[in-house]
Structures are given as C-alpha cells and as structure tokens.
Amino acid sequence: MKALVIKLLPDKQREKTLVYDWKEPPSPVRNEVLCKTVFTGLTNGTERNQLIGGNYAPSDENLPSGGGYQNVGRVIETGPDVAHLQVGDLVYASVDHVEKFTIAENGLLLRLPEDVDPAEAALFGIAGVAMHCCRRVDPRIGEKVLIVGQGCIGIFASQIAYAMGARVSVCDIEESRLEEARKIGVAEQILNTGGDAWNTQIHEGGFDIVMDFAGATDLVTPMIRACKNRGRLLLVAGRFDVNYTFNIAQFKEISILHCSHFNRGDLDNLCRFLRQGSIKIAPLIRHRVSLNEVSEIYRWLRDEPMRLLGTVFEW
Fold first, then answer.
1. Residue 285's closest CA among 263, 313, 261?
2. How confident is the model over 194-235, as pLDDT tens digits?
C-alpha cells in the first residue's frame, strides 16, 4: 500500500517520501468503515516539526513513521454495525497520508456534503485547529484580536474570529503571506513585523486577545505586553518550553491558554462556515500536486517552509 513516510537518512537528516510497501489496513469490523484515499493535505506545522525533530516528532529509533491528519477518502466497505455511512460516501478523517484506512464511524471524521469540494476538505484538519482555537479563546463581538503568524492556520483563524464578531489584526514577517491575508479581506490591520517593526507597530495593551501561530520563542513576553489587562493569550505553535516575564503577566492577570486537537464539533462548525461563505479555503491552496511530487514538497517544508501555504496531494 502507498503511504507518505518519514525516513532517517545516513547523515541523520530526515526526509518524507512515497513508499509502496506500507502495511494494509484491516478489514472493517463492528462500526468501522474502510476508505480509499482521494486527497490528503499537508499539515505544515506538525509535519515540519516531525521532519526537524521537534516536540511532536517520533524518535530516530521509531522511524520510518507515518504522520499527518488530513485525509479525504471514499467509503469502499462497511462493518456490520455501521448506521450512518454507506459505500460511496466521501469523508474527511483525521488519519495519516495513506492509500487506504479503516476508522470507526464515530471516530474523528465528517461525512462531506456533496457541495463541498473534496480538495478543499483536505485542509479541514488545519482549518479545524483554527476553529478549535477560536472556540477556546472565545472572541466576543467587538473585541480586538491579534493573530500572530499568517500561515494556513493563522489565516483560517482570522476568518473564523471575524465571523464570530471580532475586530481582527494580523501580523507576519513574510510579505507573501501578508498578501494572502489582504486577499482574504477580513483584517482591519495587516502588519509586517520583520526586524524591529514589532516594537513600533504592536502597541502595549492594544488587544483583548493575542493568538500565536508563529511559535517565535522570544515573542511570548511581547505578546503579553500587547494584551489588555485580563486579556487572553493563546499559544499553539509547537515548542518544548515557554518562557516569559512572570511579573508582566501577573500584573495584567493574563490568561494563557492552550489547545489540544480539534473534535467533531469543530469539523461540523467548520463545514457550516465554509458552506455559508464565512470562510474560504480555495485561495489558500498554493500547491495541488500528484504523489510523484511529494519529495520536493517535503524538502521545501524542511528547508524552505515559507514557499508553502496550503498543499493538497492527489491520490
């Protein structure tokens, strides 16, 4: 079976590539379904973290390893207790980049309506993270939200926070990503914070909420400074440790929030927002490629991640 797999190279660097001998999934039992993959989506942050040996990464001893959590597949077989899915249904499922997979119908999946483009649904995982983060931080109508980092999750979060009634500002150090944010058109402020620009453009106490999707370790204290008293700071991007000036957060009585993985409720709400036009996914798909191009995509992800935004693999 085909799969996208992380391998360890002789120089201890990692690569992710297509293999043809991955273990086949078991036949469905009870309430499980067997699906054949149509599209998968690159999970930029998590998969790069795994490629560079970050805090989510499998150890060298556990390689080769799969990974990813954005798979759109068509049901090809059902177990005897399946009640809601049938052969032919398209589902988004939080599983690896694999040619076929078995999953319980009450697992982390969503049956896709016919009017949802399955290629767009291949980014439901990272969009689901953004939905989960926004629900966790709970922006209220009129609150000012700063979203740090305009990769895919940051751009999705800006759209969702805006749809929830927030006044959105975004920032990044990469101008091409800020241009994508301009095209989406939900942010009141779009700020390039490269160099020393953070200090001149991000003002003390300017925001009710700051959401960090960039993971720059030296920005935690400045992000706390950017919050109002009793503001909320949401930390998402992967890192081993978080360090900040305690007294600043203490004085402001800051709430520092974390998120785990998205859930089925997040997927339901995401699909609803997409269908009603509150968020857009298609403009973020920068690369839609066949499996014979995945090695180059993963080299970029490891060595030149700013070249990528949304990436969808056709199976």
1. 313
2. 999 999 999 999 999 999 999 888 899 999 999 999 999 999
Peptide bond into 113 cis (omega under 30): no
Question: Residue 304: which residues within 8 A CB-CB, separation 6 or more?
Answer: none
The domain segmentation of the chain, as residue ranges, is 3-123+281-314, 126-258
Amino acid (one-letter) located at 298: Y
For residue 169, the cross-strand partners are 146, 189
The H-or-E segment that residue 27 falls in is none
The third-level CATH classification (topology) of the domain covering 126-258 is Rossmann fold (3.40.50)
Contacts of 282 (CB under 8 A, 6+ apart): 117, 120
DSSP conformation class of 160: H
Residues 53, 57, 60, 64, Cα dihedral to 10°: -120
Query: Residue 238 — pLDDT band, cuts 50, 70, 90?
Result: confident
Reported as a pLDDT band with limits 50, 70 and 90, residue 193 is very high
Token couple for 227: 């919050």
> Is the pTM value of this prediction over 0.90?
yes
Backbone angles phi, psi at 62, to 5 degrees: -100, 15
Task: Say if residues 312 and 152 touch (Cβ distance below 8 Å).
Answer: no
What's the CATH number for 3-123+281-314?
3.90.180.10
212 closest CA partner among 145, 266, 125: 145
